[in-house]
User: Fold this.
Amino acid sequence: MAKKEIESKTALAKRLYLIRASLLLSRYLIAVHLGINKAIYDHAERGTIFPNAEFLVVLSHKLKVNLTWLVTGNEMFSDMAKAKVASLKLQAIPVGLMKKLGHLVYMNYRDAKIDMLSEYVVEFAAELYGKL
Assistant:
């Protein structure tokens, strides 16, 4: 069952959500694409923290989002075609390697007697892949 989306508390946070929804990406994938921790992106999108200028500039550059819109609320993408291409540049993970990483995550948590939902196993496996 999917987690319920928590409503954004600020206008900027709502715009961060709109970007993610427009590109059909998860919070985790946005964070990976930006090179930041998922928790930081989660808090920014919820409006519990206000992202710094560096965060906004990197997000604008990597996702081809209009920085002025991000800060003020005008046009979202500087070039919609480039934005879609940016979201598709994420590297494909080899299936065999992903299975092995998922198995490692599952076994480690099982050995520690910690129950874990399958979507978290996949998320942690993808995080491990990103660290290779």
About this structure: The chain has two domains: 11-88, 95-131.
